Amino acid sequence: MELRELGSTGLRVSPVGFGASPLGNVFGDVPRDVARATVRRALDLGINFFDTSPYYGGTVSESVLGDCLRFSGAPRDSFVVATKCGRYKEGFDFSAARVTRSIDESLARLGLDHVDILHCHDIEFTNLDQIVNETIPALQKIKESGKARFIGITGLPLSIFTYVLDRVPPGSVDLILSYCHYGMNDTALVDLLPYLKSKGVGVISASPLAMGLLTDNGPPEWHPAPEELKLACRVAADHCRKNGKSITKLALKYSLMNNEISTVLVGMISPEQVEENVAAATELSTSGIDEELLHEVEAILKPVKNLTWPSGIQQA
Questions:
Q1: 37: domain CATH number?
Q2: On the chain, which terminus has fewer CB atoms closer than 10 Å, C or N?
Q3: Greatest CA separation found in the chain?
C-alpha cells in the first residue's frame, strides 16, 4: 500500500489503519495467539498505523496491542501508534491532572516510551471550553515532554472540531479523528476538509462500515442509528448480496478513495480480516471500484444520506 502524508506531522501512514478496539475483547474474546498473529499479519502486509484507547475493553486493548507489537519484533520507527485520553471505563475526565496521568498509564500498558499521537477521546461529552482552556494546554505539555509527538481530538458531531480549532492557538491540534461521517451513507466530513486543510490539521476517518450498518450481518442491537437508516442499509446489503458482491468490500473501497483522508481505521480481529481489508485497498489501486454497483447502492441510500444520530451533551 502506498503511504499517505498525515496532515503536517511528517508521518506517513497506510491508507488502511488498524483499529485495535477488538483486541480489548469488546466484540468477543480474542485469544492472545490470534491477536499476535493478526498484528503480525498487518505489519507484514504494510499496515503501519495502529489506534487504541484506554477506554477499549477497560485498558485491555492497549495492553494487548503493546504485547502484540513487542512480540512482532518490528522496529519502533516502522509503526505509528495512536492512543487516547479523557474517556475511560469509569467515565469521562478531561481534567489536566487526569490526562497527564493517563499518558503515563497508557505508555506502561503499551510498553512504549512515547506514542506518536495522543487524542482527546469523544470530546462532545464534556464542555468544549474545558477542552480549549484546560485539556489542550495539558496535552501540549505532554507533547513538549516527548511522551506524545502529536495531539488530536475525536468525536462524532463535526461541529466540535471547528469549535475547538477556532479557539486554540494555531498548531495546538495536529489531527482530528472523525467516525461515521465518511462512507457510502454519510459523506458529511467532505464539507469540512478544506477548513481542516487551511488549519494544517490532518484527517483520520473511522468506521467506514458505519459501526456495522454496511455489513451483511447488520449493526449490533445497541446501534444508535434511526430505524430508517438501518432499514436502508439492510436493503443495500441485500442488493449487493443478490449481485454476488460484498457491501463490506464496496464500502471500504469507497472510504479509501479520498486521498485527503490520510487513513481509514477498520477494527480487525483475525489475520483473515487483515487480508480482506488490504485486498480491498490493493484492488482499488489496481482495478478501481464497481461503479455500477456503487451507483445502485448510492441510489438506495440517497433518502437517508448524511442521516446521523445525537452524541454527547448539549453545548450552551
A1: 3.20.20.100
A2: C
A3: 55
